[in-house]
Amino acid sequence: MIISHYMTTEHRECDTLFAKAEASAAxxxxxxxxxxxxxxxxxTLLHFKKxxxxxxxxxxxxxxxxxxxxxxxxxxxxxxxxLIGKMAEAVEAKDRDAYLSLAESMMILLQQHNxxxxxxxxxxxxxxxxxxxxxxTLTALRGMSL
Amino acid sequence: MFDQNGLSLDQAPPLSVVFRFMMVGAxxxxxxxxxxxxxxxxxxxxxxxxxRIMVHLFTLGVMLSFMLGALFQMLPVIAGVVLKMPTQLAxxxxxxxxxxxxxxxxxxxxxxxxxxxxxxxxxxxALLPLIGLLLRRLGEVTHHSPSSRGMMAALISLAGVxxxxxxxxxxxxxxxxxxxxxxxxxxxxSFGLYGWIALLIVSxxxxxxxxxYVTPPHPQWMRRGFGWGLLGVLLLLGGAEMVWPTxxxxxxxVLSLMLISYGTVTLHRLTQRKRPLTDxxxxxxxxxxxxxxxxxxxxxxxxxxxxxxLPPLQGVLFGLFGVSILFAMLYKIIPFLTWFHLNxxxxxxxxxxxxxxxxxxxxxxxxxxxxxxxxxxVSVGWAPMAHAAGVAxxxxxxxxxxxxxxxxxxxxxTQETGEKIAIG
Lengths: 146, 424
What we know:
The complex is a heterodimer of chains A (146) and B (424). Chain A has one domain (2-142): nmb1532 protein domain like (Four Helix Bundle (Hemerythrin (Met), subunit A), Up-down Bundle). Chain A is 88% helix and 0% strand. Chain A has five helices and no strands. Chain B contains 13 helices and no strands. The longest helix of chain B has 35 residues, at 310-344. Mean pLDDT of chain B is 90; it is low at 1-7. The A-B interface holds A 15-16, 18-19, 22-23, 26, 68-69, 72, 75-76, 79, 82, 97-98, 100-102, 104-105, 107-109, 111-113, 115-116, 119-121, 124 and B 2-8, 77, 143, 145, 207, 210-212, 214, 274-277, 332, 335-336, 339-340, 343-344, 352-355, 359.
């Protein structure tokens, strides 16, 4: 379960960063929100990059399907990217209400997305990848940056 | 096979499918509130026609309507079960269902056999084929989550509730004698309250508590075993009703302890959430779970004449549990689904969740709900208060109805006037 463990840990780290920025926005502590939101956005976008450029192509090559779960996951990544953009605008405008409102959509969207990946996709990766390929993939994931 | 297509737009049912059940549920709630406002404490006594009508307005009219809406929405998300032609299916279920509830209430009021026969045909015809379809589709799922397993167990319970309900209606309709009436009635409400309402809430909460509030998951033993475990205890309870009456209090205690442990764990999970903000929905959950725990503690007390107020108090607390959780879910689901559908259709002018229902609005409803809960609890001991409780309940459901209509009109307005980007 090394893929599951690595990717799930990243989800939890994103949740923590997100919650920190949300609490600061609720307190209108905009000086803190900016770096905290940036940390969340960067971490999330890097995680998406790891999936889209490394994990998903490996999964697709192994299962021979590029039209199944990974297609849905990529579509949901686009939705999240759209929301990150809107949240960045809210941070810039120091608009607490808009930020918290977008944060609400973001969290539900992200959580249901994460659940699907954790319960199904990552578990399938761990099941269908031979151990050598798992190690290779993991090394590649660890080496990626934005 | 990847079953969980989740909230992708092509898998989620149209917004109208979910909202139509919510609107009808809210209307039943308003009617129930007015009913209680008019009849007062008589509506709280299930031994009277007023009480029977009140109980079915809330369990059938309100809870089942909202829960059917939740099933249509959650099955694709939780179990990857996509229903074909959901709009037509929802209409085919809802029209006979509403007419059937109406016929049943007329039957309770007039005791006319034709009304009971009409209720049996309409309710049985609406619900049993749907339950069969949903169970068949859930049975085809290869990777079950704790939520989808619990949903299956809850649907089996619902089939039991409807089946036993039809046999009770047969007694009222004059079809057969009432030799087994009392044990069947006990089973009818045990399966309805615990096997259907509580179990469906528990099953859905395994997913949504974590999703909405970013908490650790419920413990593995609870997620794995709760659904079938609770159904098993209910089936044993059914057997005990027929052949082992001395076992009933023991089984009832096991059932109560299961729900108390669920309530306690979930309250604890809410304290562990990563998002520190406490919005109204967290409080709706807290009120609901505390009411569940209190209701289940009272159910362990042996029945007797010394405390005649305990059974109605237990019933009112269980009702508060169901309705509080309902409201907790609605204040997340209504704005999220409205935004999600518009956003997925490419409308970049889609209103944000707080523009659809502002947290202040949810907070005001929380106070109204708390007020109606207190009035209800007081009316168990002081009957005249039941009239005021009824008015508060009607207002509470009126509030939800207004916001569902408001969200629908915002949705339509955005579709008619909003700017859209092409989605591939």
